[in-house]
Amino acid sequence: MTKKGKYQKKIIKYLFLLSIFIIFYCFLVAFSSFTASFSHADNFYFAKIQKEGVYFYSNPIDSSENILFEVPNTYFVKLLDDENSLFYYAQYSDQFGYVKKSDVVAMDGTPQNPYATSSFRIFALEGMGLYSSPSLSAENEIAEIPYLTDDLVYYGKVSGQQAIPDKSNEWYYCKYTSSDTLYGYVYSVFCDKLTDFADNYETFAIVTSPTFSSSSNLDGLSTVAMTFIVIGVSIPCVIVIYLLVKPTLFKEKAINEHTKIPKKRRHGDYYEFDESDLN
Q1: Domain extents in the chain
Q2: pLDDT for 99-132, tens place per residue?
Q3: What is the pTM for the complete model shown?
Q4: Nearest alpha carbon to residue 191 among 130, 115, 132, 139
Q5: Into which CATH architecture does domain 45-115+200-216 fall?
């Protein structure tokens, strides 16, 4: 084979490997999009809060460390999916988290004002820190809120550190917007002008056993679908391994054929090659 032919063959091999890589990459992208469709249900329910002490959680684990805030009584959360036996995956305003199934009542209707709307002001002369947890800890401080900032969006309250003796241990979970939009806690002792919100008397027919159209994980995939996914991932890998091993095998075969020496037979004063060995 000429040098040009070898060069063309090498280019073809690399193009083929590149094609396999692109196909494999596209498969992964398609698979990611496919599984994303199973992340949450297609339908939802609004659930009414009918008592004090109903909490919105950051994780579906019943622990005080996972509590974000107490949802205002008489308002609603939007149930997006079943998370586990204890929790729903839910939404409150622009917050996504979890609520206990035992704490809420799913309803068949859409309220006009599902979430409490309220804001408050910071009146600490030196400003007030926004914290990732309800405690005055420097390592948990997210930002410094200036004095008299009055557009903090209120979501709910939560018990935390009693930073000043004989004062409240109540903190507000809120949204603070400056150059960025930040979420966290401020100590309520340094806040005032919390906007009052009236009780929400909207109610609908109760849904005793809410059902969702899809699962929150890959349980919705059938065994056949999972089998095709495994095969689809495995085949490109096998092809790549084969292509990497194949050139070595051909090279060894070519060397063996090249080094093959024809047999010679002596006829008096000269040697004669066996024609069968030349083919």
Answers
A1: 3-37+222-258, 45-115+200-216, 119-192
A2: 999 999 999 999 999 999 999 999 999 999 999 9
A3: 0.65
A4: 130
A5: Roll (2.30)
